[in-house]
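# nightly structure sweep
# worker-07 picked up a monomer target from the shared queue
# config: single-sequence mode, recycle default, output format = structure tokens
# input follows
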Amino acid sequence: MNDRSNYIEQIIVLLKRYQSDLIANGEFNLLNSHIHAEYFLKQLLNHVSPPWKLKHTAEKFSHNTSSIDLFSEEQGLVVQVTAQKSNHREKIESTIKKYNAEWKEKFPRLRIFFIKQASDELVKEFETEKIKILSFNSIITRIQSKFTVEDAYNLLEFIKQELGTTYGSPYTYERIDLFEEYK
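# output follows
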């Protein structure tokens, strides 16, 4: 296996672990990690899709907005990050409705990022030139097809730094110290 393949394999493992944890936390309504996910995805999407230069809405408005989480004034782009586990159709429709009412004039492009993958049928139904449905799988596909060795290495280092020791190594069992029983 060459370096590029090795780096990409590690990236996939880390992103899939992170995605699984976000989904599991959502199942139990433990949503604190979802706020972190918005900031993490801002940086991840900026790495994977330059020149987006996304910012979090809280950086501009001093609070999180209900329908849009990330934006790029330079690119005329807004992103809704959602952890909705069911009824993706309703989430897409409500996001598009709010986007059309409040954001479309200034930001002609909308991306909806599902932490849990939306069905291919919904993606085909709702995607247009201006509206795209994103997921961890679409990010991974882009990385696999477009990234050089250097891009993959830099992204892997970013992910390790951002996700810390919980996800920072794809083979965490090598890092566990043996438990010593208290006597």
